[in-house]
Write a structure and sequence with these properties.
Pfam families: C1-set. There is one protein chain. This protein is mainly beta and about 260 residues long. The protein contains three helices and 17 strands. The protein folds into two domains: about 140 residues, Sandwich (Immunoglobulin-like); about 100 residues, Immunoglobulin-like (Sandwich). The strands form four sheets. Strands 1, 2, 4, 5, 6, 8 and 9 form a seven-stranded mixed beta sheet that branches. A four-stranded antiparallel beta sheet has the order 10-11-15-14, with no helix packed on it. A hairpin with a 7-residue loop joins β16 and β17.
Length: about 260
């Protein structure tokens, strides 16, 4: 019988604690921003140690508990057929033979690449579990608009964003740094993308124009989508009105020949 098969069967028969010392770690979250150009693979590393010259290493990768990929030392790596177009199985992560194919190389990312990833490693003396979160950001085809309507001293603002992933947060900021934040109305379409809008009302106490900015942000991502709108207060300012009234009266009286 193949010696490697004997070892694998033995592992299945003995309690895990009798064979190894389990190690569990969490790696830093990774952000993937989708681009229109061809993207480089996103590499998820699996950190583990092999004692001595042991050749017993089994590496398995999962996403949200779905099996993606596995490599057994001495055999070529393989991807689960369902996910074969998402993983580059030829990627070599290390020159060390017992870590050569331990990393997961993600290719052709989409919003479905988002998830909780887990690397599980079994060596002759230890077991390792590495957890990592991957978040995809897709803003390639978004639209963002901030509209306003002013009636008397009230300005109604409506910020609308479409075709973004993941679920956004919408914040409206005025030029005096007052933040008006509302829970936006969000809708998820059949493809998993989000449309959202936030509506707020502000009150102008003077005749100066007010500038407003709508900020669309995503958890864990340090770049925002922004747009700006400027809204003058309702009506004509006192200065403009007096000038208009003077011109009108001058024209009217000149027609009546009151003015020489």
């Amino acid at each position: 019988m193949n010696p490697l098969l004997i070892v694998i069967l033995a592992i299945g028969l003995f309690p895990k604690d009798a064979l190894c010392h389990p190690v569990k770690k969490r790696a830093e979250d990774k952000i993937i921003v989708l681009q229109n150009d061809e993207m480089e693979p996103t590499i998820l590393d699996c950190d583990y140690e092999v004692e001595g010259n042991s050749t017993f290493v089994i590496v398995k990768w999962y996403r949200n508990n779905d099996s993606l990929y596995q490599w057994i030392f001495g055999s070529p790596p393989s991807a689960i057929p369902k996910f074969s177009n998402e993983i580059d199985i030829t990627y070599e992560s290390s020159t060390e033979p017992n870590k050569q194919y331990s990393s997961l190389a993600l290719i052709n990312p989409s919003i479905n690449t988002t998830g909780n990833y887990k690397c599980v490693v079994q060596t002759s003396s230890n077991s390792y579990t590495i957890l990592q979160r991957v978040q995809v950001i897709d803003i390639r085809n978004y639209t963002l608009e901030l509209s306003h309507k002013t009636i008397h001293n009230e300005t109604q603002l409506n910020c609308t964003v479409t075709n973004v992933y993941p679920k956004p947060t919408i914040t409206i900021i005025s030029n005096d740094q007052d933040v008006v934040k509302r829970e936006p109305n969000l809708y998820e379409d059949e493809d998993g993308y989000f449309d959202g809008s936030a509506i707020v009302a502000t009150y102008d106490s003077d005749d100066d124009p007010d500038a407003y900015q709508c900020v669309v942000s995503f958890d864990g991502y340090d770049k925002n989508l922004t747009t700006v709108a400027t809204s003058a207060s309702a009506g004509i300012s006192h200065v403009d009105f007096n000038l208009w009234l003077f011109c009108f009266l001058y024209y009217f009286l000149s027609k009546l020949k009151v003015l020489i």
